[in-house]
Every structure is written in structure tokens, then in C-alpha cells.
Amino acid sequence: MDFHSLLNEPPFWYAVAFVLFFVLLGGRIFRPLAAMLDARASRIRQDLDEAARLKREAEQMLAEAERERSAALVEAREMIERSRHEATRIANAAKADADINAQRRERMAQDRIHAAERAAVIEVRGCAAEIASEAANAVIAAMLTAEADAALIDRAIAGLPASFATRTAA
């Protein structure tokens, strides 16, 4: 095939038209297409940069949350330990107060018992003295006659000065 015969072939002209089409209109087609692809690549790059930034922020936030969680766990353990110590102290104080109250009530009960015993002893003595006095009156009344009574009174009156002398000496 020579050059003149090639000019008569339609596929040759198709190829020439195709090349001319791209040469003449290629700039107008490829520039906006290239600009669109560049803009899309730029948006994708920005989205990737934003995603990387968000990932770093999320990692930082996760690390901060882990630190705060660890600090909160430590603080919670300390609070629990302080609460246990405080509860033990309060329980010991309450036990000591209860023991003191029990001892005080026991002393008060013993004091009441002793007071009741003393009152009972005094009452028994009073009753015994009263009974003894009545019994002595009854025995004396039954045993003493008027003459023995007069003799007893005379002896008691005679013994008064000696009784006064021993009392003033003491």
C-alpha cells in the first residue's frame, strides 16, 4: 500500500479524524476532565487527611479515657479502703460505747441493788427493833411488879451520875 492508496481508505480518514478531534478538542475536553479528576483526588486526599486526623484524635481520646478510667479505679479503690477503715473505726467506737454503757448500767444496777439491800437491812432492823421493843415491853410488863419496878427506877436514878461521868470523859 502506498501513500495514495492509503488516502482512499476510510479507516485512514477515521484515524486522522480521530487524532484531529483529540488534538483540536482534546484540550477543551481533557482540561475540565483533568481538573475534575484533580479536584476529586484533592477531596479524597483531604478526606484521607481528615480521617487520619480524626483517627489520631480518637486514639488520643481513647488514651485519655483509659487514663481517666485507671485514675477513677485507683480513686474508687482508695475510697473503698477509706470506707472500710472508717466503718471499722465506727464499729469499734460503737462497740466501745456499748461496752461503756453496759458497764455504766451494770454499776447503776449494782448501786440500786446495794441501795435496796441497805434499805431492806434498815427496814429489817427497824422491824426487829420494834418487835424487840414490843417483846421487851411484854416481858418486862409480865415480869416486873410494882415493887420491882420502883427498885429498878431507883437503881437507874442512882446510876445516872456515873453514866454522865463516863460520857463526859469520853
Strand content: under 5%
Number of helices: 4
The percent range for helix content is: over 70%
| Helix and strand pattern | HHHH
Structural class based on helices, strands and sheet pairing: mainly alpha
What integer value in Å does the Rg equal?
65 Å
Mean of all residue-level pLDDT scores: 88
Q: Count up the domains.
A: 1
Total strands: the figure is 0
User: What characteristic shape results from the CA principal axes?
Assistant: rod-shaped
List the helices and strands and how they pair.
Blueprint: H1 3-7, H2 10-143, H3 146-158, H4 160-169
Textual characterization of the structure:
The chain is mostly helical and 170 residues long. It is 95% helix and 0% strand. It has helices spanning 3-7, 10-143, 146-158, 160-169. The mean pLDDT is 88.
Question: How would you describe this structure in keywords?
Answer:
0% strand, 170 residues, mainly alpha
In summary, what is this structure?
With 170 residues, the protein is mostly helical. 95% of the residues lie in helices and 0% in strands.
